[in-house]
């Protein structure tokens, strides 16, 4: 086994030539985190067929970034809203389970069915991530496209500590000298005083234990994991009196800030807050099969550095909002590069891996047994 302590991007990179080495690396990563935190970590996984595929949502890929003069609305807001309108209108009758109630909840379904969103898929299962990274190798149908994908593949498994990422989100709001992020979220007349009061409340000793971090040992598997769709229901209970509930601290102010930036899509400067790790209700068998969880990005406002880069090289699109380049995200990430994908895929198939595990459509399941790979 080989290991490189840090890549250029400061994300730890591991290398594996067999399925056994993949599992050994995941165990080593878990033990390393455990030695630092004294807790067994929760890990999420994401598989890429190409190592150079960045950790950024697909709606942000290969497009320019244009905001209005007040930085309150962008072309990407528009692109998201058109997609939401089209997807919901054309697929409302196809949702397997309970119909999504909010736009952010609909985006979970959209993301899993190839529409572009601010969400990025992860899985609670390492096996699912491996099946995605090696999908071309476990595919029973070897047409020219699949053969070419195998030839050019550079599979990688990304590993995320979701609770550590959400801790970084919390501290992005709390560890500030002023309340400008809170003021922007409140966005109303005579709210400056309330924003300052909320910041002082969040900065109090042990405030983290009340508004974010539960210290109960038996609750460690749910601690710091955010469900935005569930928080939407909480907010709806205070509909019409949100400001009063915040002023009285009946409504968790941190959770309210998450809703404003990650669900409502208030734009924020790149570097102010990182993406958020979230869970969603399962709205289709596919999402359930893939044990889907997500990171959701806020709408980032490109900074001056990125605008300068864009002007200097008009052949490229800036910025790339890859998590692996964000200072707050780097400590939360590891990746395992698979050096021998043929071998790992062969060993993975012996454990029962097949494309039907990812897409339980009748056609895919039929192909799995009709064209079984040896």
Question: Notable features of this structure?
Answer:
five-stranded mixed β-sheet; 374 residues; three-stranded antiparallel β-sheet; alpha+beta; 44% helix; 17 helices; globular
Structure description:
Mean pLDDT is 87; it is low at 1-9. This protein has helices at residues 19-37, 75-91, 103-112, 126-133, 135-138, 144-152, 162-174, 180-186, 192-202, 207-211, 228-237, 242-247, 253-263, 285-289, 304-312, 341-350, 362-370; strands at residues 2-4, 12-16, 44-48, 119-123, 156-160, 268-269, 276-278, 292-296, 300-301, 333-338. A hairpin with a 7-residue loop joins strand 1 and strand 2 (12-16). By secondary structure, the chain is α+β, with helices and mostly antiparallel strands. Strands 1-2-10-5-3 form a five-stranded mixed β-sheet. Strands 4-8-7 form a three-stranded antiparallel β-sheet. A two-stranded parallel ribbon has the order 6-9. It is built from 17 helices and ten strands.
Largest beta-sheet details: 5 strands, mixed
Helix and strand pattern = EEHEHHEHHHEHHHHHHHEEHEEHEHH
Point out poorly predicted stretches. Answer: 1-9
How many beta strands in the DSSP annotation?
A: 10
User: What separation lies between the terminal Cα atoms?
Assistant: 27 Å
Compact summary:
With 374 residues, this protein is α+β, with helices and mostly antiparallel strands. It has 17 helices and ten strands.
């Amino acid at each position: 086994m080989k290991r490189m302590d840090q890549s250029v991007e400061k994300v730890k990179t591991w290398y594996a030539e067999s399925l056994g080495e993949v599992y050994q690396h995941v165990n080593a990563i878990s033990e390393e985190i455990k030695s630092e935190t004294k807790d067994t970590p929760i890990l999420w996984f994401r598989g890429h067929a190409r190592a150079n595929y960045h950790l950024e949502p697909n709606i942000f890929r290969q497009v320019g970034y244009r905001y209005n003069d007040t930085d309150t609305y962008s072309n990407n807001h528009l692109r998201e809203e058109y997609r939401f309108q089209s997807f919901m209108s054309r697929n409302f009758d196809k949702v397997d389970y309970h119909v999504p109630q909010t736009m952010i909840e609909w985006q979970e379904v959209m993301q899993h069915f190839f529409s572009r969103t601010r969400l990025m898929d992860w899985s609670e299962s390492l096996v699912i991530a491996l099946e995605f990274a090696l999908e071309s190798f476990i595919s029973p149908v070897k047409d020219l496209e699949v053969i070419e994908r195998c030839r050019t593949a550079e599979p990688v498994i990304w590993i995320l500590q979701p609770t550590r990422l959400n801790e970084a989100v919390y501290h992005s709001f709390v560890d500030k000298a002023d309340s400008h992020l809170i003021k922007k979220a409140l966005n109303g007349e005579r709210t400056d005083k309330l924003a300052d009061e909320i910041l002082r409340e969040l900065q109090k000793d042990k405030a983290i234990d009340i508004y974010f971090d539960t210290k109960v040992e038996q609750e460690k598997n749910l601690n710091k994991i955010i469900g935005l769709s569930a928080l939407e229901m909480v907010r709806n209970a205070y509909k019409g009196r949100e400001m009063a509930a915040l002023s009285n601290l009946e409504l968790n102010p941190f959770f309210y800030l998450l809703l404003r930036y990650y669900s409502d899509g208030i734009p924020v400067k790149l570097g102010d807050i990182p993406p958020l790790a979230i869970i969603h209700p399962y709205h289709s068998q596919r999402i359930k099969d893939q044990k889907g969880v997500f990171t959701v990005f806020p709408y980032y406002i490109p900074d001056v550095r990125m605008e300068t880069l864009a002007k200097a090289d008009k052949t490229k699109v800036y910025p790339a909002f890859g998590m692996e380049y964000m200072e707050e995200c780097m400590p939360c990430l590891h990746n395992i590069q698979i050096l021998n994908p043929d071998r790992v895929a062969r060993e993975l198939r012996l454990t029962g891996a097949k494309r039907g595990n990812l897409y339980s459509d009748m056609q895919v399941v039929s192909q799995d047994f009709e064209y079984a790979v040896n």
